[in-house]
Amino acid sequence: MSKTLLDVRSLSKSYATGRGRLDLFRELSFEVAEGEMVAIVGESGAGKSSLLHLLAALDKPDAGEVYLDTTRVDQLNLREQAEFRNRQIGYVWQFHYLLPEFTAEENVAMPLLARGTGRAEAISAARRWLTEVELGDRFTHRTGELSGGEQQRVSLARALVTQPRLLFADEPTGDLDNRTADVVFSLIQRLHKAHGLTSVLVTHNLEFAARCDRILRLRNGGLSQTPVTV
Ligand SMILES: Nc1ncnc2c1ncn2[C@@H]1O[C@H](COP(=O)(O)OP(=O)(O)OP(=O)(O)O)[C@@H](O)[C@H]1O
């Protein structure tokens, strides 16, 4: 049995909105083991992105606890959250949020530069990861000039260049056509296996979810867990 890396205990989240309080989920508990690839699915508005934000120290829960190994993620202050995200987390967004005027290698090097790594070393690591995502011929292209699939591969390289303990991806293929989505998902799956990553992905694509080790389904404020049997 693999070691638990992510431990979520009785997590609750609501938002104050103009029309009163929106209870998203109550007392969610689950674990993710080291090396697992877990899909989070659920209808639009079920709270998948909000849950990922809590796990990645981008937001705080109303109640409950999130542990990444021995770190109590939900209790980090703002400075600690930023440091935690830079050191421990790789995050891929649906809309890649690359800087279009910067080259692919500069975008990928940025998390390393932000933590004080020297430029030559950061660019060299960026090139290694761009090669891993099969963009070895695009180092010095501006990301604004790359295709949607290529941009998402750059953002995957940026998420992994820091060698994070956990990879989160929020609809990483949601903005791509079917064929490109399959290329990007297959790449995530290949890198997950090759580098022994632990990954949590939000997806609407049930075919991709079924290719993960486990599916967590958010519904009506609760969670059901489905072992993948296909
Ligand atoms: N900061 C916020 N303040 C108020 N309401 C919010 C906030 N963020 C999200 N919500 C609301 O919470 C609900 C869940 O949003 P969330 O983005 O987590 O859902 P989701 O399952 O990821 O949806 P989708 O699949 O459409 O991306 C939505 O109704 C959304 O409008």
From TrEMBL:
GO terms for cellular component: membrane protein complex; plasma membrane. PROSITE patterns: ABC_TRANSPORTER_1, ABC_TRANSPORTER_2. GO terms for molecular function: ATP binding; ATP hydrolysis activity; transmembrane transporter activity. Residues 6-230 form the ABC transporter domain. It holds the Pfam family ABC_tran. Keywords: ATP-binding, Nucleotide-binding, Transport. CDD domains: ABC_MJ0796_LolCDE_FtsE. InterPro entries: AAA+_ATPase, ABC_transporter-like_ATP-bd, ABC_transporter-like_CS, ABC_transpr_LolD-like, MacB-like_ATP-bd, P-loop_NTPase. Belongs to the ABC transporter superfamily. Macrolide exporter (TC 3.A.1.122) family. This is ABC transporter ATP-binding protein.
